[in-house]
Amino acid sequence: MVKDIQLRLTLKDEERSDILLIKSAQYLSIRREDITGIKVLRKSIDARKAKIILNYKLSVYIKEALPEKSDYQFHYKDVSKAKPIHIIGFGPAGMYAALRCIELGFKPIVLERGKNVQDRRRDLKAINQDHHVDEDSNYCFGEGGAGTYSDGKLYTRSLKRGDVRKIFENLVFHGAADEILVDAHPHIGTNKLPKIIQNIRENIINYGGEVHFETRVTDFNIKNSKIESVVLQNGTEMVTDRVILATGHSARDIFYLLDKKQIALKAKSFAMGVRVEHPQHIIDSIQYHCSGDRHELLPPAAYSLVQQVKDRGVYSFCMCPGGFIVPAATANGEVVVNGMSPSRRNNKYANSGIVVEINVDKDIPKYEKFGALKGLEYQKNLERIAFTSGGRTQAAPAQRLTDFVQGNLSSSLNDTSYQPGLNSAPLHSLLPKLIGGRLRKGFEAFGRKMNGYYTEEANVIGVESRTSSPVNIPRNETLEHPEISNLFPCGEGGGYAGGIISAAMDGERCAEAAVVGL
Fold it and tell me: Model-level pTM?
């Protein structure tokens, strides 16, 4: 017999290693000896009140053995001689499209502009230490995409787009810890993702797929409304039948290429702002109602904030407890910041994007001349401003949070996790009023919601601009582009995902659509 129950435990309870057995027996009014196993289905922390509660959802096995196998089995097959599907990009969407192709009996041929995870590390070091951006290998481009070195948070609201549990189980199958199946806000960590991604790549190759690194697609040969071949940077042409385009939200060259070929694109609303960094102990003290160190059983505290300011949302994005701020530019001459956390989230800083909704149809009339690319050009302009005001390196412009809100240039800045360094700059006036004015009001509101959040001990760092794609590549009900019948726009780059899990689910959907009729 199996009983599903929910328990609420205190931190004192949690200190006991056998507490789930004790409490389950009490809840079910049975002997402990009758419980043959306990499977944790979900775990979350309720810290809304001073007395912190841990919520557990459990399956309790009574005189019955725990199942040995996962709910999902992944039966990959040899596709080395099967019909090919070309996939451009090897981020979450491209990886899961490739895995799904193999499950369906088709051969994925992946073309990735960047390097594998091992070689990519050297280029990240060059950004942080030498302020040099390799335009094909950086925090956005390369094996695993932006998610590899940008945290690995797995939270998604896209529950209707696919089987979320299957995506999580597949990550565990490729080496992720079982905890991601349980935690309410699962997270893998920047330090552990590279090995998992390497395992996925090796699995694809072992079953007959191909993964080509440092292989940038520069052109499409189109005839009779179909892509007949793709042209690579070295001039090579590859004949194609079906093409899944999973190049991510920062592959501007692809947007420019499609626009040049007069292939339909749409401007898409997105969000931009800054990244704010606090000492982690401040966020812990606010969220856990503690004056000293947080309880050893509690993880570094996170937060989620939103405020409406002048009909636009101002909200936290990609919050990284115990994390680092990283330089996420994809070209020299721009500064972009993003956040990441290692698996233990044991850095002394907490950071989060704080961004403002931008309605591309109403908010940026001066950019109308750029048509579908107006949001992209607006985004680029702010990144250039950040580059110039930061000192024309990868150092980022920054202010103390209180100075940003009050409109004062900071005479000094707090210590930071951002390795290229910070330069004091008047971000409050450099950012367009559309963004800067709303951020200042938003921070004031956040300070009222979280007593202690609004502090001179926090830095505001610019700019957080790659929250999502400013361009949508349209597709019809068969997931094909309405003008190019064998092109399947996919993932964040097409405007159909907002993170690792939603991109992975969209990759699977596009693979299933692409093989129809082959």
Answer: 0.95
